[in-house]
Design goal:
Layout: H1 2-27, H2 29-33, H3 44-59, E1 64-65, E2 74-75, H4 83-94, H5 103-128, H6 133-144, H7 164-177, H8 182-195, H9 200-221, H10 223-251, H11 271-275, H12 282-290, H13 304-323, H14 327-331, H15 337-340, H16 342-353, H17 384-407, H18 411-441, H19 446-450, H20 456-461, E3 472-476, H21 492-505, H22 519-526, E4 548-552, H23 559-567, E5 569-573, E6 578-582, H24 584-588, H25 592-602, E7 608-609, E8 612-614, E9 621-623, E10 640-654, E11 663-671, E12 680-687, E13 690-698, E14 704-706, E15 709-717, E16 724-743, E17 748-751, E18 757-759, E19 762-763
Helix pairs in contact: 1-5, 1-6, 3-4, 3-21, 5-6, 5-7, 6-17, 7-8, 7-9, 8-9, 8-10, 9-10, 9-16, 13-17, 16-17, 17-18
Length: 768
């Protein structure tokens, strides 16, 4: 009898694996046959992830990725290039094995294989939860093909491996069943460390889920009884994190990565993201009935209508137990070992994924206690364990209810609702996967990105230039993403053509699209677009005087970008892109000397009013903050400093007189090395108490940069009746200096502490 039972178990496992394979082949027939020919998406994070992976595997080695942030490059942990897979392919390339040519296929097939593995592991878990083979197999497939990782196939592909959380949970279940067996602690510790080399989120999710079991064990078993197991769990969770941290500390030389990345209190889970449909057709119906917004994407772990019904039924049971005083039935539910503790632990992890208690008014200051954990800013991703554990609980719950009704002589009634529930669950899985799969199946375009024919090797070959004539690529429209200081997103055309050029020509990019990049290096890159009044401090650090290759897509360019195009030589133009050669000398040229000469001739003819010299008689205003107690000024000691998260008032008072009814500019310089992002500046125009106008400028897209200071400007028009103005700044940890309000037709001069002229906030001191 036991042997027959074991055979049935293994046969069920093989059948689940086979069915999962058939379903993957059904949804992704082209990609599973030709995985190396497909790109899951051609925009956003997905195309960037393909680019960094391809560039590293074909051109780089070791712990340095050189495809962005030229000339320094970046540590392999930050471009989202899946080092666990990319580094071995680079090794193979160095040994003469052309495996890197199949890198995209390996990534694609890995995501599909992870679905199959997830189904098998979930089957094993459900079987250990005392579910029969047939039902465990069905439930495993349903849970797998509604997994939140499928949503990542077209985005963060390093987060799209559906089997990782089930494997982590399975290891925990085995720890709970056999606390003294060391193999499961070792296996989970090694597994977490390895998958941390795909992305650190996987490792952190496993560690947090394991740590969440410790308090649950304490209240379910008592602290004294659970202490040995709790200690083993703690060390298993902590050691991979510690080892990863030590590796980064020893191998990453950057010391100015952002300490407080944006999103901790916004990219979280909530009730809607867990229990409300995030995909059609039920999404629209839900929003029509309940009048809700779209679920937060980062926290989207939809458990289905069946999961919601199980939640409501469980809630009703819990209320019954509490009314009867049966608290123990709630804290220690009558469930198999793998659910009794893990369900509560996953709920605790879900609370953390909901950014609780930090989102409760008055508790936001608790984020300051998180330290390095703030780097895991997308807290919603930590809801993934809840999806798997609660979905397994839902499957267990409806099976037990079905069995109870059958045992109480109501088999017809039991089957009448079980089959529709399973069909509804399966229908939601199909509705979820099908549109994602159809999008992917329509993109057999890998050769268009990395193939030799019709690409930039050929395009450049029709000119007098060779790839080796250039040292790097600068994309226009410009994009740079990686810190919360500056954040200029890439258009789909600009990103695709830029990555394509870099891969074809083996040229690095003078930009970055990474996580937690160096603040200083980000500023130096964006400074390349600053006006001629700013010296480009990155240029002397370039290893060559070769020109820069501009990759310009036919889109609207900002004035700073147009200026670069005008300085460059057109090489070749196609409907998709234009290539230009930008000499380093042209990029390095400034107008500081000529403006200094002009100022020397002009200033003796201008009257001084409160230390300001203006080229017209129109009113201007400057707030120097010289009397501020904070002495970290820009051109002189004294700066406005507001450490709290709030709207700061840089100026509130009458408009400068005599007034001008034309266009004005309010500008201020903001320090980019403070603890948080750069926020935004706002200008409000009033007639007495009546607000006439409100303008906002996002500092993250500013490219006027000198040293550690970023210039942000708001252009507005003064209505004839306006008599009062407010200049506000919305930020946390604000350090600002040299606020100037002036008509755009008026230049303003003053002298700094060294008696050097300053024009509209730009110093005209001679460079050395």
């Amino acid at each position: 009898m036991l042997r027959q039972h074991v055979r049935r178990y293994w046969a069920g496992m093989l059948l689940v694996g086979a069915l999962a394979t058939l379903l993957v082949a059904k949804f992704f027939p082209g990609e599973i046959r030709y995985p190396n020919e497909y790109l899951n998406a051609v925009s956003g994070d997905s195309i960037k992830n393909y680019f960094v992976f391809e560039y590293y595997t074909h051109y780089d080695s070791g712990q340095l990725f050189t495809g962005m942030n030229y000339p320094r490059g970046e540590h392999i942990n930050y471009p989202d290039m899946q080092p666990l897979l990319a580094v071995p392919l680079a090794w193979a390339r160095q040994l003469g094995l052309p495996l890197a040519d199949y890198g995209i296929g390996l990534v694609n097939i890995g995501l599909l294989l992870a679905l199959i593995v997830a189904a098998v592991v979930l089957y094993v878990i459900l079987y250990r939860l005392c579910l029969p083979v047939w039902y465990a197999g069905i439930a495993a497939l349903l849970i797998t093909f509604m997994a939140p990782q499928i949503d990542r196939f077209q985005g963060h592909m390093s987060l799209a491996y559906a089997c990782f959380v089930p494997i982590q949970w399975y290891c925990i279940i085995r720890m709970l069943e056999r606390p003294t067996r060391r193999r499961w602690y070792l296996l989970m510790g090694v597994f977490d460390l390895l998958i941390g080399l795909l992305t650190a989120y996987h490792m952190a999710i496993g560690s947090l889920l394991l740590l969440a079991h410790i308090p649950v064990l304490a209240w379910q078993q008592g602290w004294r009884r659970s202490w040995p197991l709790a200690w083993r769990m703690f060390t298993t969770a902590a050691l991979p994190l510690l080892a990863f941290r030590v590796w980064l500390g020893l191998s990453d030389p950057i010391t100015d990565r952002p300490l407080n990345p944006y999103g901790l209190l916004t990219a979280h889970a909530n009730f809607r993201s867990v229990f409300a449909p995030g995909h059609e057709p039920l999404k629209q119906l839900w929003q029509f009935i309940f009048e809700t917004d779209d679920p937060i994407f980062e926290g989207q772990v939809y458990v289905g209508v069946v999961g919601l019904l199980v939640l409501l039924s469980t809630g009703w049971l819990v209320l019954r137990y509490l009314r009867r005083g049966q608290w123990r039935r709630v804290t220690v539910p009558v469930l198999p070992t793998g659910l009794r503790t893990s369900l509560w632990a996953a709920a605790l992890v879900l609370v953390a994924a909901m950014a609780m208690p930090m989102r409760i008014p008055g508790f936001s200051g608790l984020t300051e206690l998180l330290g390095p954990l703030k780097q895991f800013r997308a807290l919603g991703r930590f809801a993934w364990p809840f999806y798997y554990v609660f979905s397994a609980y839902a499957a267990f719950y409806i099976y037990r209810l079905w069995r109870y009704l059958r045992q109480h002589r109501a088999p017809g009634f039991a089957t009448s609702w079980l089959l529709p529930l399973l069909l509804l669950w399966g229908g939601e899985a199909v509705w979820y996967v099908r549109p994602i799969a159809e999008n992917i199946e329509s993109r057999a375009v890998k050769d268009k990105l990395v193939g030799a024919y019709g690409n930039y090797q050929q395009l450049l070959g029709w000119s007098a230039f060779e790839p080796t004539d250039f040292q790097a690529i600068l994309p226009l429209p410009y994009f740079i993403v990686g810190t919360d200081k500056l954040d200029m997103g890439a258009t789909e055309q600009a990103a695709y053509q830029t990555y394509k050029t870099a891969l074809n020509l083996h040229l690095p990019l003078l930009t970055m699209f990474m996580a937690r990049s160096s603040v200083g290096e980000t500023l130096r890159l964006a400074q390349l677009l600053s006006s001629p009044l700013v010296e480009k401090t990155l240029l002397p650090k370039l290893p060559s005087t070769k020109p820069i290759l501009l990759v310009v897509t036919p889109e609207t360019l900002r004035p700073a970008e147009q200026r670069l195009v005008h300085m460059a030589q057109l090489i070749r133009a196609t409907p998709e892109v234009s290539l230009y050669a930008l000499p380093i000398s042209a990029l390095a040229a400034t107008t500081v000397a000529s403006e200094r000469t002009r100022a020397a001739a002009l200033l003796p003819t201008l009257p001084a009013v409160n230390g300001l010299y203006t080229t017209t008689g129109k009113g201007v205003l400057r707030q120097s903050f010289d009397q501020s107690p904070d002495r970290r000024g820009r051109l002189a000691p004294g700066a406005f400093y507001e450490p709290r998260e709030m709207f700061s008032t840089l100026y509130a008072g009458p408009l400068p007189m005599p007034a001008d009814t034309g266009r004005y500019e309010a500008s201020v310089w903001v320090n980019a090395t403070t603890a948080y992002g750069l926020g935004n500046m706002q200008v409000k125009i009033y007639h007495d108490a009546e607000q006439l106008d409100h303008q906002v400028a996002d500092t993250r897209i500013s490219t006027e940069i000198q040293g550690d200071w970023v210039r942000v400007a708001v252009v507005f028009r003064r209505p004839p009746t306006a008599n009062r103005i407010e200049v506000l700044y919305d930020n946390h940890d604000l350090l600002a200096d040299d606020l100037v309000i002036r008509p755009l037709t008026t230049d303003v001069y003053w002298f700094d502490q060294h008696h050097e002229p300053v024009l509209n906030g730009y110093p005209l001191a001679p460079t050395h």
